[in-house]
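During the second year of the project, the team shifted from modelling isolated chains to modelling whole assemblies. The rationale, set out in the original proposal, was that interfaces cannot be judged from single-chain predictions alone. As a representative example for this report, we include one of the complexes processed in the last quarter. Its constituent sequences, exactly as entered into the pipeline, are reproduced here:
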Amino acid sequence: MDVRVEDLTKRYGQVTALDGVSQAFPSGALTAVVGPSGCGKTTLLRCLAGFVAPDRGRLWMGDRDVTYTQPQSRDAAMVFQSYALWPHMTVFENLAFALRLRKVPRRDIEQRVREALDLVELDRVPGIGERRPRQLSGGQQQRVALARAIVVRPQVLLLDEPLSNLDAKIRHRVRVEIRALQRRTGITAIYVTHDQEEAMSIADMVVVMEGGRVAQAGRPEEVYAQPKSPFVAEFLGSTNVLAAVMDPDGRILPSAAGSLIFRAEDIRLASPQEPAPAGSAWVDGEVVDVLFLGAGYRAYVRVGEEVIMADHRTPMPRGAVRAVIPLEKVFAFSRD
Amino acid sequence: MNATGPPAPSLRGRPRGLPALALRAALVAVLLAAIVGPLAGLVLWSVAERWHWPAVLPQQVGLKYWARITQGDLLAALTRGVAIASVTTVAALVAAIPVSYGAARARLPLGPVLLMLFLLPQAFPQLPVFASAAVLFYRWNLAGTYAGVVLIHLVGGLVYAVWTMTAVFRAIGEDIEEAAINLGASVTRTFFRISLPLALPGVVASSILVFIYSLDEFTGTLLVGAPYVTTLPVYMYTASLGYELQIASVTALVLMVPGVLLLVLMERFLRAEYLAFFGRL
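Output from the structure prediction step:
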């Protein structure tokens, strides 16, 4: 079921959390809503869940206008950042709670709880159903929270920073599992995160938010390759921002009139004598430091008053260099 | 851990030289004197059948006055007090649970004002508050009745109930409730199936506080209840007024028993995480 919002606006006193957001979330896809804290992504999700009533705008799930529908009757199950498992109930009771509400027969409840635990790969943990949330690890609690949401077979799955309480190693694994689960069930998932890498790796579509508005939306590769604003470019990757403009030959000249944005991985450090190839931008500088990052090296290059980062697979020269960037990888914006 | 290794030296509780030890000993002695001293006096008086000045210890020791427990009036005052405390506790809970839940969730209009209102009677000296209440109660024919005493106990009891339970409900994350609502539970069902069971330890602790408060309450009971409704504290007061210090001591010791027992119980129920939210408007 696809989800659409139109002109969604929400103010808290002086703060505008959502500023006329219009966005479609395609059916059966995983859409990541990403942005820095305070960009309105959580408010958007809470509007979708029905916990926040928008001041203006409309909200659609399929053909149904759910703008003023109670959260109980939205058919959009949510996974909370804190998991919000009920500590006084066992895992089985946590999962069965919503099924009992729906008057599902007792035998079917057991069947469906088992299926849900199977989907999140908790079925192999012995006696999982009788345990209480407190007795589980963070990763297991996260899976129980996920299972509790999908056991009701919702049309829409809402995930609010579901991995932020896990340590890095488990986070990567659970992220892959969430993606696999979403693919298998074909559920429409809306996934809020502040982590741009997580968003791009997991999603069919990313929606980058800034200041209560959608800054850019599209396929992850598209948004990464063609950022529409300096904010999006900076937010999505390790990026250099130079106060500069390019002359017709591709030479980068310091200037307050414009911003040039390019990623560390797109820079090639060449010898200052080497002429820059056609179709590239270039600037001369001096390597001040090189860090070994494991997969490669990162050089810090002083360019005039500023320092830019350049990533290489191989060890890099020190001293004077010419930084060369393919023209299509340079995003030029004029400064207001 | 390696079980065969030598025992690790304890890092805690290691005395740091003689001065520290002496200081600690002195502190313990002062505390013991402050706590045990008056208690020892009570115990001595309760068994002193004859004790005339200037003797340091009673001349004749016996359980004559303890035997009074089994006779009518003391026991009657105790059961009366327990009955009043039970009714007060139930009434305080019924009133305080919705108020404190509403205040904790900021769903109550003027929640902070309401909380202050409950605290207000405690901000003034007890005696004038209760005295003016007593005047009102005489006008309403509540003086000397059980209902009157319960009402006067509720003035203080509600403060404890509302303030502790607001803290308890605040300690329960709102997302815990939202998770239930999100999965289709009504607000009422969410409250009774999720919030209240989670708050139960705090509710029990809060009831114990109210119960003990009511059992030990003196000023209001004396002004409103006496002479028809006498509880143990009032009984003790009357006894000591008549220079029956032995009876007063026995009463005080009897009165301590439920208090100590319940406080031990409460200590198990009132979790540290509630205290973080205690006293916030």
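Residues 22-61 of chain B form one domain. The CA atoms of residues 168 and 274 of chain B lie 5 Å apart.
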